[in-house]
Amino acid sequence: MAHAIGAEVHDQKVTLFQTPKGKFCKVTGQIAPAISFEVDLPMEHWTQRFLLGGCGGLCGMTHVGVSNAGACTPALNGEFVMAGDNMGHIGSMMGLAQGEFGKSPQQRIDFAYRANHVTTLAAKALTAAFYGQAPKYSYFVGCSDGGREALMEAQRYPEDFDGISAGAPAAMFTVQNSFYHAWNVRGNQRADGTNILLQSRVGVLHDAVIRHCDTLSGVKDGLLEDPRTCHFDPAWVQCPAGQRDTSHCLTAEETQAALRLYKGATDAAGRPYIIGGPLPGSELQWALPSTARGESMSKGIAASAIAYVIPLQVDEKAADLTRFHFDDASFARMTELAPLYNAENTNLRPFRKHGGHLILWHGLADQSISPLNTIAYYQGVQQEMGAKQTDSFLKFYLLPGVGHCGNGEGFPQVDFLSPLMAWTESGIASNAILAEKTTLGDGPMGPPLGGHGKPPAGGQIHMASMPSQPYARPNAVAIASRPVYPYPYIAQYGGAGDVNNAENYRPVMSPVSLPMMFASHAASLIGPDNQKQYGVKGGKLVIENAQ
Predict the structure, then answer these.
(1) By C-alpha distance, which of 228, 214, 262 is closest to 512?
(2) Beta bridge partners of residue 507, listed in sequence order
(3) Which pTM value belongs to this model?
(4) Beta-carbon count within 10 A of 425 CB
(5) pLDDT at residue 174 above 80?
(6) Among residues of the chain, what percentage have pLDDT more than 90?
(7) Do the beta carbons of residue 485 and residue 509 sit within 8 Å?
(8) Contact (CB, 8 A) for 76 and 474
(9) Whole-number Å distance between alpha carbons of 257 and 186
(10) What is d(CA 133, CA 149) in angstroms, rounded to the nearest whole number?
């Protein structure tokens, strides 16, 4: 196997384990220097399919599983060879210490793109040895950083997979984990470091947005089918001057903080560094502190990434976000390794030539990664390859009211694997994907909802809740359904029948159907062939050759 993947493989162990879906042969091991992997091979029901699941956050753990596949019979029955890896290092998904792998140039490369590729080669070699034949179809499914990993596979290793599902991708990794999350902290603080807008206040903001903005669906359900048509007006929420009771309105200070969060990171002159902040309608998902001195998940993400992972030179003092400057010098420093980490290469011709199919999706109420990033990337692919050619292998879906990889007030229970398989194996592209609402909510990357539909204070959005297992978790019982159509179409109620039944909706073009202009520093990082191959020389990270 070492010959097949071009790297040393050691500590291999083989065990037989019984599951409710039959017996599996579990193979674990390590690919040099520190990529731990697991491959689970079904002994009873294999249908010549292989699936690698992406890992969220900064990973650091070996986890086998698949999300957004709860109605996919082969995945539910354990018919896939399934694999996972730790992205080249050990640690929790989040936390300051987790980013310390950035001290190792090789572990940076493994996290950026190498780990999933060599794990794929290892899994395919094991599959061929075990069954006497290679997989007929190979799939990658991931969300958040797993979505970035999914796009990275399509861009760097177009022959690894036949079908890829990329959800809420952290594709603009270097900017997302620095400017975006640092601004979520600093843009909501006073000069003394205390927080302005707190978790308990976002309900006021959200209710005002829903009250003033058209849902576009023809149903007053509190979900914005296209939040880009909603332009927040401070007058909606700001308390009149001198009013003492602020329980149903925001102070001027809170209102200005909300405006800064919507807009996203800028310099002192107001020039934007990021493509956009969270969209209107996402307020209940905002990862804000619960107290004036409390901390949010954004602080942990930014501190770890800025100190250890993103810049070329590790600077542990940079974990103090008060030292971070929103200026051109910081942007240059944070994007020096964009050709290593970012998955913003719009030239997907090699993946299309391989016969690959890609489903790209994002929740419109995602506050951790703005869906505007994914819209900008999709437009970039269209601009590079043409709309018709893009549509032949890539479908893009936006989920109203859905938070980061799930949860939210919308319809977060979605099976993307079934339509991806149908498209990949039979050439049948789905026009509408069924999205459902359950009494339990749904969020493989998020925690259970707190009061009033809000996540726990601080926004612990990257906690994996599913156990490691070589088959999918079945969908919960749905209480309502809604179709999701390929971008730029939205769902509109037909005027008759149950508003909670997807069959009573039709596709209409979004009012914002024309390409958007994203005038920001980050937009320049989206384009064709903008990735490089990296190696280690003399203990330092070096560019080997351009992709």
Answers:
(1) 228
(2) 491
(3) 0.95
(4) 14
(5) yes
(6) 88
(7) no
(8) yes
(9) 10
(10) 26
